[in-house]
Structure formats: C-alpha cells, structure tokens
Amino acid sequence: MKLAEVANRLSCTLEGDGNIEIHGVATLEDACAGQLSFLTNVKYHNEAKKTLASALIVDSQSPSFGKAVLRHHNPYLIFAKSLNLFYPAMPLSPSIHPSALIASTTTLGEGVSIGAYTVIGERVSLGNRVVIESNCVIQEGVHLGDDTQIHSGSVIGKGSIIGRHCVIQSNSVIGSDGFGYAKNDDGSWYKIRQTGIVILEDEVEVGANTTIDRATLGETRICKGVKIDNLVQIGHGALINQHSLICAQVGMAGSTTIGKNVILAGQVGVAGHLTIGDNVVATPQTGIANSVAANQIISGAPSMDHKIWMKSSSVITRLPELLKTLRRIEKRVAQIEQTSQVKL
Comparing C-alpha atoms, which of 33, 9, 8 is closest to residue 21? Predict the structure, then answer.
C-alpha cells in the first residue's frame, strides 16, 4: 500500500514521498525498509534517528528525522489504527460445533459461532454474530448482545446481561457469587444469598482470569466503553462508569462507585462503599481507603495527593540518616538542659 493511501485512510497529514510502498508496522528498533513505525514518546528520539523504517507516525511538533512522516495530534491512536489496517482480523465463518450442548429454549441470532464443548443453559439469548469459543459455560437467562465475543474457558453466570461489541477474554467469570457472609451467634459464618445480576453495557472489554461478582440485591454494572485488564476482581454491587480503565490486579470491594474516565493502575486496591470521582488517576499499588473527589491524581497507601506522595517517598530512603540526626539532636538538647540545671 502506498504511503499516500495509508495517510488518507488514517486521516493523517503526509510529509514526504507518498509513493513509498508500505507493507507493515514495526517498532523503531525492529523496523526495516517498507515498514511504518511510530514515535509516541520523546524519550525514544534517539531510536527514531536510527530506525530503518521508511516512514514514521509522529505528532504535530516532532521533527521528521529525514524521513517521510504521517502527522497527527494523537500518534498513539494512529499507531493503533495502523495495526488494524495492515493486520486485519481473520474473517470467521459462523459454525456450531457438534459437541456443544445448547438448551432447546436458547434463542440464536444470525451468524452465531459456538465452539467445542461449550454449554448453553435455558432461556439464553444470543444476538447476531455472537462468538462463543470452546469450553465456555453460559448459564440460564443470560443475554449476549450483537457482535460480542466470549473467549475459551469463560463462565457467564445466571441472568447476566452483556451488551453489544463486548469482549470477554479467556477463563473469566462474569456473575460469580459476591463475597457476603453474616456471623452466627456461635462465631461461624452464614452465607448471604447473592440474588442480583451483572450488567455489562456496550463495548466493554474484560481481560483474562478476571472476576466480576453478581450483586447481593440489584446489580453490578460496568458502563459503556469500560476496559478491564487481566486478573482483576470487582466486588458485588459495584458501579464503574463510562470509559474508565481498570488495569491488572486491581481489587475492588463491593458497593463502590467509580466515576467516568477513571484510571486505576496496576495493583490498586479499593475499599468498599466508596465513591471515586470522575477523571481520577490512581498510580500503581495505591491503596484507596476513603472516597476521592473528581479530577485528582493519587498515590500511596493510604492514598494521598500524588505530589505529596512524591515528596514523602523521596524522604523514605533518608529515614535512617534522619533518625541518627534526630538522636544526636536529642542527645545534645539533653546535655544543654543538664548544663543549664547545674548552673541554676
């Protein structure tokens, strides 16, 4: 594909020879002639100077490095779109494997694919072009919207509602029981029946080995466009609002509300019954024990303003030295006090 066509299809401004033939995308280090690469972080300028790529995706202010460039204000987005342009998904021919067990009350849309050894329960509704891979369990009363994909080994629990264009990666469990127990008089634990459901709105993606618990009463809801990474635990009755990003190993207790466009980085822990405001960013391993107002960047455990945490963490390595200094000061003060008492 000629670079001019690439620029047109990716809505970029072309600078340089539009007749260059491009056949793929590669990193700055690995690219060779005929490939398109990308610069999305200024710290890789040296690699951009050395790359053998025939053209670069860059932002509006970047130098060209003596190469043809495609300019866009969001080069990372253009890089993502270029992958779909050069490496499109393989078309799937709809099919239902003969080993799949499908209840007679299941409703199938057009173009549905169901893999080997998958089990689909009573009163399940599958929209058009739904793909369910092998060894999945879709329990009774589940609804899957058009163009949703369930990857192998996943379990969708009773009554769960999953919207259109959703992706559930392998071995995830949507609609498992929430963690709820009441203490008996003898100290043992009495299980609280989890009667609610899980709702995933349109365009939600869930990573591998992630669990989203059904509510005790009502619903656990993941709103439109939310993206959830691998190995995430979302507790019962939680609400995650539109376009938030939940990274790997986040643990979120029940009945917590996450605002719009929130980012919880890796290994963030969130206590239950909290509200995290819109546009909050929690850096890796933040421990959130209290509600957080909108538009903040937080860090640390317990969480605090990121700038305060940066100043505090810079002191940690100096604590032994500061402790020695403090003890010397205390000793000196004690000596001065003794001397003063003798004079008196």
Answer: 33
